[in-house]
Amino acid sequence: MKSVPQSAPASFPHHMLREIYEQPEALRETVKRHVAGDIIFPDELTAIESALLTFQKIIIAASGSSRHAGLVGEILIEDLSGIAVDVEYASEYVYRSTHATADPIVMVITQSGETADTLAALREAITRGAKTVALCNVADSTVTREANSTLLTYTGQEVAVPATKSFTAQLAVLYLFALFLARKRGRMTSEVIRAHIQHLLDLPEALRKALPGWDAQAKEMAEKFGKASTVMYLGRGVHYAIAREAALKLKEISYASAEGFPAGELKHGPNALVDERVPVVVLATCDRNDPDSMLRYHKTLSTMEEIKHRGGQVIAVASEGEGAAKGAASRVVFVPPAPELLLPILEIVPLQLFAYHMAVLNGCDVDHPRNLVKAVVEE
Length: 379
Hints:
Elements: H1 15-21, H2 23-34, E1 35-36, E2 39-40, H3 49-52, E3 57-62, H4 64-81, E4 84-89, H5 90-93, E5 104-110, H6 116-127, E6 131-136, H7 142-146, E7 149-152, H8 165-184, H9 190-225, E8 230-235, H10 239-254, E9 257-262, E10 279-284, H11 291-309, E11 313-319, H12 324-327, E12 331-335, H13 343-361
Parallel strand pairs: 3-4, 3-5, 5-6, 6-7, 8-9, 8-10, 10-11, 11-12
Antiparallel strand pairs: 1-2
Helix pairs in contact: 2-8, 2-9, 4-8, 4-10, 8-9, 9-13, 10-13
C-alpha cells in the first residue's frame, strides 16, 4: 500500500482509522489489477470458462461484513447482468437443500481466506459439483487454493478486526464481476463497459478528497449522539446492505445495540423504537440520472419526515446538492455524486468513521473488540 494522503491525520491512533484512510489507494489498486483496457478479469476466470456459458444462477456464501458485500453484489449482478443471485449465510449453506434443478456458480467471500464457515460452504459446493469462485484478500490462503477461480482484493494487510478497506474493495470487485457477466451475456457493449469502469475509477479520488471532512463530521456526530444505547440504520434497494454493514460496524466496536432495516419496513415494527433518544441513520443518497433511484430517494425523504414528526433524531447520508435532506434531518453528511450502484462504496465510509468515533468516545478498543477475532477459524 502507498502512504495515506497528506490531508489525513499526521499519525493514526488506531489501525482502524489508518485503514479507513487507505481505502482510496486500496480501491485504485484493486481495480487496476483486474482491468486491462475494457477487458475485465482477463485471466482470473479461465478455469470456469465453460461453466460461465451454461450456469443458471449464482449463490454467494459469506459471513459478517463479507455477507453484506454479497448482498450488494446480489443487486449489482441482477441489475447489470440479469442473472439470478441468492445470498446465503456461510454457516447455513451446508444445511440447506441441494441445488435441485439449478446449475449454479458458487462464490464465497472472505477477507482472510481461512474463515471456517466459509471454507465449509466452499467444500460443500465442491461436493455438490458446483464451480466455485473465491473473493479474498489473501492470495496464499486455503480458500484460494481450493476454489476453482479466485478474484483478489489488493488492500494490503488489514490489521484491525473491523473490516473497512477490505469491504469497499470487495464491493469494487463485485461491481467488476457484474460488468464481466453483463458483457459475457451480451447485455453491454464495450463502450458502455468502459463508461462503467471509468465511473469506478473516479471513486478513489472522490473518497480521498472527502475523507478529512467526513472525519470531522463523524467526530462531531459522535459527541452529539455518543451516549445512545440504540441506533437504527435505514436504507432502500442496494443501500439496505449498507445499513446492515454500518450497524454491524457500530455494534462490534462500540457495543451499542444497532440494526439495519429496509426503510419501508419501519412501519412494520421498528417504528416503536423511534423517539428522541434513538438516532436513526438514513441512507438518502440518489442518482439524478436514474429514475428508479429518484423514486427511492423521494420515498426515503417521506420516511425521514415521518421520523422527524415522531420526535426522532435523523442522521442522513445524502448526495451533494440534495438540499431536501437537510429539512428532515438533524445532521446531514454529503457524499459526492455517483451512479446509483456505486454509491454504496461512498456512503459506507463516513459511517465507518461514525462508528469509529463513537467507540473511541466510549473508551472501546476499536482494533480488537471484545470477543472478536479477525478470522473465525473455528465453527
